[in-house]
Structures are given as structure tokens and as C-alpha cells.
Design goal:
Blueprint: H1 3-15, H2 18-54, E1 60-65, H3 86-93, E2 98-113, E3 116-125, H4 129-132, E4 137-140, E5 153-156, H5 158-165, E6 174-177, E7 180-188, E8 193-194, E9 197-198, E10 202-206, H6 207-213, E11 221-226, H7 232-247, E12 252-256, H8 257-300, H9 302-310, H10 315-351, H11 361-387, H12 391-396
């Protein structure tokens, strides 16, 4: 029997019991639609998070105090890790591939101006910070490179400027930060939110002023950018060698943004696979439906099977007929589920634009192949039963 005859026979058998076939393929369709919808949300979240990180560039490297690793000892005990200092940042800035460096100190403080008070993030940073994080100054200028004897200058984020000064010009105004007076020299252009955090709700002061304001002896992080295209591993190795020579040992951690993105990408890939697997569970329900339908079909068509064998059809051909029918049901259910899943994902993107949705076509293809394989696997036992029927008994069946 030719392949087209096999397919025609299988489709004719399905159309003979339209409602039963539809309900069976509906089980497969629900499973495929669930896989596509869940993986679309997972993949959209994946791309959204990575996009949020990549907007600051991929040539960023962070140095933090304390070495990453497993150590013994009681949690919470004081360590002998050396602070990261502005001198460390200056030493890193002299490295060949480094383009910008900033020692950062972060804290929270009350900011007062025009009779208004707002508690906000205070970033103690260097002159290269705006360039490092691809931030734009809307008016005025960013912090000057005046070394460790920094003046009481401040640059306002867009949200802080709006809350304290409204539409008035803030340049040259005096504001109070944590009980100290600062002069506003710049206002940043709106940057928006990153992972739900308002980047514009912050002020920027020189690192040395932040160290005094928060009574700290060292920076919480040294950030740096390197020449685009340079090997992050090479830059990390150079930074590590420089700081080891200064500290006498490796009591710090150096992490490139590419390493952060790779680690985050692996986590998000696992998340997408997990939600896809949860959706695939419903495919098992569809498989049970196919087994049930095909078992009933074998019982109902016993006489037909006997006639085919009596006319010379091989048992392998009979088995192929029922397998083709099972695969046809699963394939049609897969196509129906594909249309429904893509439609729902599209509707989510239209009516919920804040929800990141992106259809991963590799998962779509895998789901379609999986539906066909499920039909094949679910039809094996009924098909074998049909092929093994005794010809005489089958012909006598009503």
C-alpha cells in the first residue's frame, strides 16, 4: 500500500467518527497550546531580563570586596578582607584595556530642597560613571574628576529633580543630603526602570563625600569598562593581578558582565524548560485519549481487519494503517494547538504589553514533533492488537 493510500485510509477512518476524533485531538491541542503559551512567556521574560542588563553594555566588569568561594567558620564573624579604595580604582584605571573606572559607594539618605523632603538612593561615584552606564546628562554637567578632595557637588536623577523642583531650573540650587549642603551641577536625562527599579530616583555625589556621609572606610564596588571587543577574561586577569599585588592576596572578586549574563541566561533557560515541561504534562492526557480511541476503533472494525487480511493485506500493513490513524490524530491536534497557542500568545502581547512574550520557535518545532511521536507511541499497542487478530474470528465478528 502506498503512503498516500495509507494516509487517505486513516483520514477516512477519522471522518467516520468526527466527534470522537475531534475530542481526542483536542487533548493533544490543549497540551501543545499550553507548551507554546508557557514557553512564550518564559522566553519573553528571558529576553526582557537580558535586554535590561545589556542596555548598560556588555564590556562592564565589577570588583567587589571579599573572595567568592566556600570557607569554614561561623557565619557573621568579622573577616580580614581588605577594603576596596580609590587608590585601587586609580591603579586599575592605568591598565591598558580599561577605558573607565569608578569606585562606588551606595546608601540611602533624605534629600531636602524647596521645603520638600525625599528619601532616595545616594550614589557616591566617579566622573566616569555616566559614560560607564551609558547615561546622558540632560542639563548641566556630571561630576568632575577632582580626585579624593571632592567638593560638595551633586547631580540629580530625573525623578528626584521632578519631585523636589518640579518644572523649575535646579542648576545652581543648594540641597541638603543627610544634613550636608550640596550644590546641584547637573540633571540626568530619564533612564526609566530596570527590573522594576527606578534608575532616575537617585542622586550622584563624589565617592569621597559618600564615604564621609555614610562613615565607610572603603567602596562597595569598583566598576570598570574595557575596550569593546577585548577579551573579558584578559581584562579580569589583569585586574586580578593588579589588586593581588596591592593587597598581597586575593581578598576580592572580579566578575565580568558577560559572566553575569551567561549565568543568568542559564537560569532563565532552565525556567523556560521547566514551564514548557509543565505544559507538556497535559500531552499525556492527549496520549491516553489516543490509546482509548484506537482501542475502541480496533474493537469496532474487527470484521474490516479480517477482510483486509483475507484479501492479502500483510499484518504489517494492518498495523501501519492504525499507526497512521493515531499519528494523523496527533498531528492534526498539534496543528490546532499551534494555531491556538500562537493566537493566545499574540493576544497577550496586544492586551498586556507589559508582559514580555516571545515565541521560541525551537520549542514550537519540538512540541509538534512531540505530538507526532506521542500519536505513534499511543497507537502502537492498539495497532499490534489489530495486526494479531485471527482472520477467521475477525471475519465472523459482527
Amino acid at each position: 500500500m502506498f503512503g498516500r493510500d495509507l494516509l487517505r485510509f486513516a483520514l477516512r477512518a477519522l471522518t467516520a467518527h468526527k466527534l470522537r476524533a475531534f475530542l481526542t485531538l483536542l487533548g493533544i491541542a490543549v497540551g501543545i497550546a499550553a507548551v507554546i503559551l508557557l514557553t512564550a512567556i518564559g522566553e519573553g521574560l528571558h529576553r526582557y531580563v537580558l535586554g535590561e542588563f545589556n542596555q548598560f553594555g556588555t564590556n562592564f566588569v565589577a570588583v567587589t570586596p571579599g573572595k567568592l568561594g566556600t570557607r569554614g567558620g561561623v557565619p557573621g564573624m568579622l573577616t580580614t578582607a581588605r577594603d576596596l579604595t580609590q587608590e585601587d580604582a586609580e591603579a586599575i584605571a592605568r591598565l591598558p584595556l580599561v577605558t573607565a573606572v569608578s569606585a562606588t559607594v551606595n546608601g540611602n539618605a533624605e534629600v531636602r530642597a524647596n521645603g520638600r523632603v525625599r528619601r532616595t538612593l545616594v550614589n557616591g561615584c566617579g566622573a566616569d560613571t555616566a559614560r560607564m552606564y551609558s547615561m546622558t546628562v540632560l542639563s548641566g554637567a556630571f561630576l568632575p574628576a577632582d580626585g579624593r578632595q571632592a567638593r560638595a557637588l551633586v547631580v540629580l536623577g530625573a525623578t528626584v529633580k521632578r519631585e523636589l523642583f518640579g518644572n523649575d531650573n535646579a542648576l545652581g540650587a543648594r540641597i541638603d543630603i543627610g544634613g550636608e549642603r550640596y550644590r546641584v551641577i547637573g540633571v540626568m536625562a530619564p533612564k526609566g526602570q530596570v527590573l522594576g527599579f527606578d534608575v532616575d530616583d537617585a542622586v550622584y555625589i563624589p565617592t569621597s563625600r559618600a564615604l564621609m556621609l555614610f562613615n565607610r572606610s572603603g567602596a562597595s564596588e569598583i566598576g570598570l569598562t574595557h575596550v569593546p571587543g577585548a577579551s573579558p577574561a584578559r581584562v579580569v586577569a589583569a585586574v586580578r593581578e593588579t589588586l593581588v599585588s596591592r593587597h598581597g592576596r586575593e581578598d576580592f572578586a572580579v566578575t565580568s558582565q558577560q559572566e553575569m549574563i551567561d549565568a543568568l541566561s542559564q537560569i532563565l533557560d532552565m525556567l523556560t524548560m521547566t514551564v514548557g515541561a509543565l505544559g507538556a504534562i497535559s500531552l499525556l492526557v492527549g496520549a491516553v485519549g489516543i490509546v482509548t480511541m484506537m482501542t475502541i476503533a480496533v474493537t469496532e472494525r474487527t470484521a474490516e481487519i479480517g477482510l483486509l487480511v483475507a484479501l492479502g493485506a500483510r499484518r504489517r500493513t494492518v498495523q501501519g494503517l492504525f499507526l497512521a490513524e493515531a499519528v494523523a490524530v496527533a498531528a492534526l491536534g498539534g496543528v490546532f494547538g499551534l494555531v491556538v497557542g500562537l493566537g493566545l500568545a499574540g493576544l497577550l502581547a496586544v492586551f498586556m504589553p507589559d508582559l514580555p512574550v516571545a515565541t521560541p520557535w525551537s520549542y514550537v518545532l519540538a512540541a509538534e514533533i512531540c505530538s507526532a511521536l506521542i500519536g505513534l507511541a499511543a497507537g502502537v499497542l492498539p495497532a499490534r492488537r489489530a495486526a494479531q487478530l485471527n482472520v477467521i474470528d475477525a471475519l465472523r465478528a459482527e
